[in-house]
Amino acid sequence: MQNNHVIHDIRQFFNSEKQNGKNLITYQTKLDFDVFLDKYDIGVELDTFKQIILQEETGLELGGADKISHSLVFPIIDSNLIESGKITLLGLEIKELKDFSIDFSIFILIGLKEATEQDMEKLRKLSFISNGIEGFLIRSIPRRFWCRISSEVIERDFSFDFLGRAIQYLYYRKFGNLIKSIEIFFINSYPGSIKKFKEITSDIRDQVKKTLKKKIDEWKKRIDCDYDWGCEICPYKEECYKVKELLVERERLEN
User: Fold this and answer.
1) Does 11 have pLDDT greater than 70?
2) How far apart, in whole angstroms, are the C-alpha atoms of residue 125 and residue 111?
3) Three-state SS for 145?
4) C-alpha of 248 from chain center
5) Of 208, 213, 210, nearest to 228 (Cα)?
6) Helices in the chain by DSSP H: which ranges?
7) Mapping DSSP to helix (H, G, I), strand (E, B) and coil, where does residue 229 land?
8) What is the pLDDT of residues 228-246, one digit of tens each?
9) What is the pLDDT of residues 41-63, one digit of tens each?
10) Taking 80 as the threshold, does the pLDDT of residue 213 lie above it?
11) Domain ranges in the chain?
12) CA gap 185, 33 in Å, rounded
């Protein structure tokens, strides 16, 4: 019931924004992913495009240092609540944008067959798509979603429609045994709308934060860590992960 209420509020929000005169585009296609992606001269495949996009090579930044940004992945078992394959864009398509850097939000709904909490945690990590799409880079900034799209792929008709399909394709490729359906929402050009949407989805984010905080606290207690900062900004994160890997391997050998 809680998921039903949250997703109803999300759909109501987008409908209200459209009624208020804001540009709303929806994409829905029954085309096979391979057929759709073949329409574009842009590569999409897991772990194939490990690239750096320099500022002078950038055609568009999503989010950024002085822009509002928001990203959230919401995996649920209630897959019947999801309009599979649908992509909703509140804002403008890439070819219509005039600015180099824009406010940006992405929300991904994933319907699951079944999943553990560990599976859920893996699904929420969106960063893997950065290495899967040619000319698309997610910059590693704590608590901020910041992407670059190269000028070259924009000239080859990179669009939010394409980005949504590519993300869906990569999720199915990586987690196909878990996923039944995916729906994606984008917002750009309307900073006020992004702020409202962040408020609407705040309960989801709070749930995720509580789960992650519990895991972090358990882990820090286990390795006798007394630092106050979170793991994502910890300067000793790499060393800590190495310790974690050793502990996991030791447990595996002991079992």
Assistant:
1) yes
2) 16
3) strand
4) 28
5) 213
6) 2-19, 33-38, 117-124, 151-155, 160-175, 191-200, 202-222, 237-254
7) coil
8) 555 555 655 565 655 555 5
9) 999 999 999 889 999 999 999 99
10) no
11) 2-201, 210-254
12) 18
Residue 174, SS3? helix
Using an 8 Å Cβ cutoff, are 94 and 42 in contact? no
Mean per-residue pLDDT over the chain, rounded: 84
Cα separation, 101 vs 67, in Å, equals 8
CATH topology classification for 2-201: 3.30.1650
Count other Cβ atoms within 10 Å, centred on residue 210. 10
Instruction: Find the Cα–Cα–Cα–Cα dihedral 28, 109, 58, 67, rounded to 10°.
Output: 120
Token pair belonging to 142: 């704590």
28, burial (CB in 10 Å: exposed 0-12, middle 13-18, buried 19+): exposed
Q: Dihedrals φ, ψ of 193, to 5°? A: -65, -40
Q: Which residue has the tokens 């000239």?
A: 155
Q: Helix (H, G, I), strand (E, B), or coil: what is residue 106?
A: strand
Share of the chain above pLDDT 70, in %: 77
Q: What angle do CA 90, 91, 94 make, to 5 degrees?
A: 125
Total length of the chain: 255
Q: Which residues contact 141 (CB under 8 A, 6 or more apart)?
A: none
Nearest to 215 by CA among 121, 147, 83: 121
Kindly state the helix (H) or strand (E) to which residue 26 belongs, with its residue range. Answer: strand 24-27
Q: Which long-range contacts (CB under 8 A, 24 or more apart) does 121-125 make?
A: 121/211, 121/212, 121/215, 122/175, 123/73, 123/75, 123/171, 123/175, 123/178, 124/73, 124/75, 124/208, 125/73
Q: Residue written as tokens 């996009």?
A: 53
